[in-house]
Amino acid sequence: MAEKRDYYEVLGVSKGASDDEIKKAFRKLAKQYHPDLHPDDKECEAKFKEVNEAYEVLSDPDKKAKYDQFGHAGVDPNYGAGQGGGFGGFSGFGGFGDMDDILNSFFGGFGGSSRSSNPNAPRRGGDIEASIAIDFMEACTGKKASVRINRLESCPECHGTGAAAGTSPKTCPDCHGTGQVRVSQRTPFGNIASTSRCSRCSGSGKIVETPCRACSGKGQVRKASTKEIEIPAGVDDGQTLRVQGGGHAGINGGQNGDLHVHVTVRPDPIFERDGYDVWTDIPLTYTQATLGAEIVVPTVDGKVKYNVPEGTQTNTVFRLRGKGIKKLYRSDRGDHYVRVNVEIPKNLTKEQKNLLKKFDDSLSNKNYQKRESFFDKLKDKFK
Known about the structure:
The protein is of the alpha+beta class. The chain has 9 helices and 16 strands. It has helices spanning 7-11, 19-33, 42-58, 61-70, 100-107, 136-141, 286-291, 350-361, 369-381, and strands spanning 89-90, 128-134, 143-154, 170-171, 180-187, 190-197, 206-207, 220-231, 240-243, 259-265, 272-274, 277-285, 293-299, 302-308, 317-320, 336-343. The chain has a 4-stranded mixed sheet with strand order 11-12-16-15. It has a 3-stranded antiparallel sheet with strand order 1-6-5. It has a 3-stranded mixed sheet with strand order 2-10-9. Strand 5 and strand 6 (190-197) form a beta hairpin. Helix 2 runs antiparallel to helix 3 (42-58). The longest helix has 17 residues, at 42-58. Residues 78-116 have low confidence and may be disordered.
């Protein structure tokens, strides 16, 4: 089995990268290697899984801290919560009483205290990340979709115990189920007591004498699958949907982690989104703009008729109230804005040009408000 790459190297960030830098790098790579964009490409699929695995660890403060200290061993499911050693406290230090509390105030973050939590208590499973790309209209109306995930599940053979069928884990005789051992050492300052992870049970508090073949005694197996999720109407590009319980299975009966789905919305050739509002550019003929006309406007709900008034100028904006996108988890909606552009005709015939000249000759400055205003200002300037 090939050795895992460094998670920071996988995402292309430095070890001191901020949460935003890590998230930005993940989204970029997730889009780059998404299986939907590279069907039947095993190499891209492998890289996509590698990127998800790296982000799953580096986006979680606790996992990131363990990874920074212990490397891959710190986040491997075979390792318990009581990893690491350190000083747990002093005893017999004349005049200072119980030094556990004092040392814990300095070194408590290293997990070396004898008062550590029960290693066999229920623990929540980790969160996982996934990405999905949808069309503009699917984001407006919502849909059911399937995402590919790779998560840890409770082993179906041993039901999470890690022991082969017909057997069960036994309490570790060295640590008596605590996952830690306490050692006293005589020093010139007195007896110093320290606690560390039990080497016999690797901090789990249990001994599996006959490991389960399916999970090699870990109690969990990694499984690739697809999960159906509900994409709500109004979701926007770059948003993340949370699917409660869709992450890794919990340990010792703990609840599952969550699934975080990052959404990419493909751009639309007609509609442009601005929050929950929609913009559309519609061309008008010279005659339509001059005389007014009934036009058909495409909206996210279908076609709508609209009467353009006569004398409409280019870049005029009309508002269709309530015809925009439904607001996320709400009943109200944004608006639809129509921006019209008057298209000047080209390639006119000689007859058409003559008719247009006659028409132009019949007009005066009063027919052109902007033109009349401009020449009035010009006269005032050069009096």
